[in-house]
């Protein structure tokens, strides 16, 4: 996969792209990450990429010319997904990450100031994504979040091929608790079932814990989850214990 980011502050990405899974993914050749400065496409000697909004108002608005020029130069006639990081966009989910992971090329637009010229949104962008109902200084942190969640899904990136499958939200439920050695720490014990070696019971415990945690922390996820009869009975048991 090839991911290109357009930003007014490209140096923000060096630490994130140069460490952990994103670094390893590049070393393995699973992804190519590039960041370009929007100002390089300003087309004027002052590198100005913003201007006052028509009609008045506070703040500055990103001009259309630099964004269109940058995307056209980067894509060179290709038609990849052009993603605008924007608080007005679609709420980002694991399902969206899985969808984007199927693409061969992605372009992320990160803005600052008051917003974008609407023509960028209407005629350049294919996807608008928000990572939550809050406002950040710019789109960079949101883009980093989306890119990280997408890249870790690419083949060969994680150590085990199915490492991401049991992640929270990948199955539609929150993930079950995890434990490791020692079996006892300061009087706190690892659940006995995990030490039993009985894989069927362990899987049952994990499924039940996943359901319990989802019910307690994110009951909204259960509204559209295809519960089995067995899972429904377990949830009824949990509700009676509340």
Question: How would you portray this structure in words?
Answer:
- The protein has helices at 13-17, 20-27, 64-75, 94-100, 118-123, 140-151, 199-217, 229-241; strands at 2-7, 32-37, 50-51, 61-62, 81-91, 105-109, 115-116, 127-130, 184-185, 188-189.
- It is an alpha/beta fold and 242 residues long.
- The chain has two domains: 2-151, Alpha/beta knot (3-Layer(aba) Sandwich), CATH 3.40.1280.10; 184-241, Orthogonal Bundle (Trp Operon Repressor, Chain A), CATH 1.10.1270.20.
- The strands form three sheets. A five-stranded parallel sheet has the order 2-1-6-5-8.
- Strand 9 and strand 10 form a beta hairpin.
- Helix 7 crosses helix 8.
- The model has no long low-confidence stretch (mean pLDDT 93).
